[in-house]
């Protein structure tokens, strides 16, 4: 069964060298990757077997381009796990050697017709210390996919006698949605919604974006630690909103601080959580859209979130490869981007007597692309980009593979929004807006007298 490539993959086809059939010979783009730290003694063959078992249940990682072009599933495609031993290298050169080995694995060019899309590289730093790079072509995975993979691999390592449950089939999902009788009506509804006039946002201090220019290495990370995670859970319980719904509401509310009308937000992600909470893998092929009605009853902050969640729930579902349907990915890349770099504090998982968790900055910073190859930093992060064009300021939030300028004001206000909702759900929405504006301005170090322009 073949399915059409979606936005991120069409971009790969345009960038790649192709053969006579129009299929890619070479992918010039770095792959999506995350770096993990394994602390404690680990059974390497057992860990490799656990990762291969989990990968076998993800059909989108076994996809291949076929004439058309279309995506087909290569059922027998392996999941390679390479191992490198750096434990005997002198300590003052060990991290550099490990980074070089990981860089080769991460940035190696691949043939999208034949080479495995996904794989892993495990570097031994000491008998009880390893670095693990998980690598997947960026057209077929996102950060959340990597995190779920590590979680499932840890479970498979702990219980090797159990067969890991398969991930819902991406190919079956695409076929089902393509045949859905509601697809045409859904497309028409969302096309009309996204063509509406969007209120312009005038940030304080005369800025065209809500933070100063900065370099990627100076990006400000928003760490979603235990307190914030608890506030998010409490906010969901109070309002009945889903995780995505709460994020959409928070971003709409924050952007609305600087405009006279509520701001719609589009949140694109790799894979779709259906209304039955069934997760379907993929890469940037689905989106969740918040379209505030003209008037949301807002006696309280919690009431405002409930009103927005109810309005979104009443909208038709986004069926099928929505970003491809509307050229979403291509449109995003043509516009100026504003990025909030959110570093999610993932849990540490058990591997027998060892643990696996996100690698620290020192280890991530050691991984360099080989000469002649360009690369991105290791993420272990969720990157949220707020995007609009000068002609039509639609605001978009999506997973972004690049670490671009950070946004401390937005991050600080986002955390404060979740705290207010959890601690003071009955606070008046206007009062909450005043507190969030003050939080934003303090983080931005902007004089409170600066008027929006």
UniProtKB/TrEMBL annotation:
SUPFAM superfamilies: CoA-dependent acyltransferases (SSF52777). One of its GO terms (cellular component) is cytoplasm. InterPro entries: CAT-like_dom_sf, Condensation_dom. Pfam families: Condensation. GO terms for biological process: amino acid activation for nonribosomal peptide biosynthetic process; lipid biosynthetic process; secondary metabolite biosynthetic process. Residues 37-262 form the Condensation domain. One of its GO terms (molecular function) is catalytic activity. This is Condensation domain-containing protein. The lineage of its organism: Bacteria, Bacillati, Actinomycetota, Actinomycetes, Micromonosporales.
